[in-house]
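User: Hi! I'm a student and our assignment asks us to look at how structure tokens line up with a sequence. Could you show me two examples?

Assistant: Happy to help. In each example below, the sequence comes first and the structure tokens follow. Example one:
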Amino acid sequence: MNVVYFYSTYFFIFFLANIYILNYLKKKDIYDLPSQFKSHKIKTPKGSGIGVTLFIVFSLITYYILFEVEIENSDIPRFYVLMVGLVILFLISIYDDYLGINPFIRLFIQITICFLSLSSLPINLWGYMNSYITFSKLNWLIIIYFWLFIVNLTNFFDGVDFLITIKIFFVSLAYLIIGINENNNLIINISVILVLSSILLGYFNLYPAKFFLGDSGSIPVGFLLGWIFIYLFQKGFLIELLIINTVHFYDIIITEIKKLLKFQNIFIRHRDFIFQKIYDSTNNKRKFYFKYLLIYLSLFILFFTSYSSELRIKLVCLGISIILIIIFSNVSKK
């Protein structure tokens, strides 16, 4: 049976499940309350990530069952480890959403899951990495660090209505284009699942948000996005990946460098990210979202232009994407 049938069925089921969860949380008066470190000004339920992540998990399991041999032939030795790691992070994040976990314990759990999930990455990755760095354990650390970077980057931008939806949609759509052009069924299916999850989330997260994604969604989604990034990196698409992710990569890196130069603790919660500041200072939120959407459309065009182009064109597109984000950041601050 066509796998799209299962994806469509799961989409409908977990869309209804999210409506039920939303109504349940409202009935029990369980809300994410506004605070100085949060963007929203009115109390809003969080937990739409439960339905979104369950949709992803069920879809991935179905794909794995139907195409196990094909996945193994794609040099993915233990794809099931990725799914197990995703589920564990999901369960831990649900607990964190409603009861809270010490941030250092949470970070330790994330590091452990990423380390144990290294075996789900392509076999060719290590040979590719060793061509740059011959010390294998250092390669492990680099991969784990970058995987965690994408996991937490996705989590940081959940609290601003609809930003996380736009990011997931455009980044996953870019990955889908790579999968289609490379005839890579694995990337096609994971990307389709993520695009559908962004649409599922978008209904609840569209400004003003009815329902936040929460850690139960942003952490597992970030984990899966990180896996695809690493997979496509070893396939030679680093510049294209950097272009479509420029918005959040630039924001996180510049903000954390500034804090380190001021000897500030980067591990405590703050609202110093560039796009958070722009959002907070903008009275017309719909205008902000329109500009943000245009930024991602521009990045998507640059990504598409760079794809399959010669290195010189790729670097030009990457440079333009960085300049575009710098201009947007500085103009929007005024």
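Example two works the same way, sequence first and then tokens:
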Amino acid sequence: MFSGPRPFQKPQAAPVKNRAAAWRFEARPRQPFSLTTESHDPSIVLRAARALTVIGIVEPAEDKTAAPVAADPNGHGHGAANGILMSWTSQDGGDTFDEGVVISDAKFAVSGHGETAPFLTLGRKGLCVVFEQKRPDGKGNDLMASWSSMAMTWTKPVCIAPKAVASGNSYASVAAGADGLVAATWLDSRDKSGGGPHVFVAISEDGGKTWGDAFSLAAGACPCCRPGIAISDKRAISVSWRNVETGDIRDIFTVSSTDGGKSFSKPKLVARDGWRVSGCPHTGCALAYQGDVLHAAWYSAGSGRGTSGIRHATSASHGNVWDKPVIISGGTLDPNHPMISSTEGTVLVAFQARPTRGDGWEPYAAHVVDVTSPATRARGFSECPAGGKGVSYPRVLQDAIGRAWVVSTAGHKVTISRARRA
């Protein structure tokens, strides 16, 4: 699909001037929701000074008499397949949460785990969540969206990728702009050309209530790595994905639009990591805008030991040219699954990794790095205490006065940890 591979680009390691943690976390994470069954794969937004909204999948009580449900033939069956999607709201910065509101249609099960988890965003016109829900005909999943102004009630979910014949449409991300522009991206297998799923996008101009026709941006994507998306205050839209190239090289590409999604650039390589892997690594690239600067965070094993880790890079040209990536996970073990958050002029990356203590097999903990500038990036990571339970797929957000929140799954429950800037 693209030109031949560029020479391998060895990333630099972030210089660490001060290992003092940039964030002070609570001693133990909390599971504040009154749930008797499993919950997982949360996402979080800050609606006002102390008003938080968290969404997550809740599993019904196990019915031991029910027959097991096999995975369908359209690329689904990862993780949970019988859940409902809920939201919880806190008006006091996370001290307490309400009892929760059901978002999804109770007649159709919600599916998602890890890279396929539901995705929540907040824009000028409200909240929008994108998630997978079982099709009415039972053949695979539909990709749905729901909107809310205050997270007290949600609109009836609408399908943003309607199809006459079921096919894969999963690994979705969604982002919001400042004026009601919302865009979602996902991997779609309706078009069999190009040697792999296509990267699709759909756009809404009213905060996520209604959507335009979905369309393809690129083919040949790595089939289980979530694409990323970001929208600037000036309506620029950028999308990232892991591409499969000749020789099973799986590196990150981006496309961008500067006209609100009417047209997109040609794909651009973010960095030539040269990661060769015969199989999908299940780890995508996250994007966020800080003004006109586009930030990207992703994992790559690179060319082997010494070149693996969470990478961070920026572009001042909407992805047309990228600076040299920097590994920001140095000092951790087995880092993966970065997510990025840009709020009030601060850009944070959260990822899961094992601490280097003991025998090197400590439970996974969330780690947070401030990548707003080279100076903040050089401070290194802050470790979020795991409370003895390994966490997975953490997400982070921060406010304007030096507070941050991390949500993740731990012990089959949605977990939240709070921090203050040190």
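Here is something you could point out in your write-up. Helices lie at 374-377.
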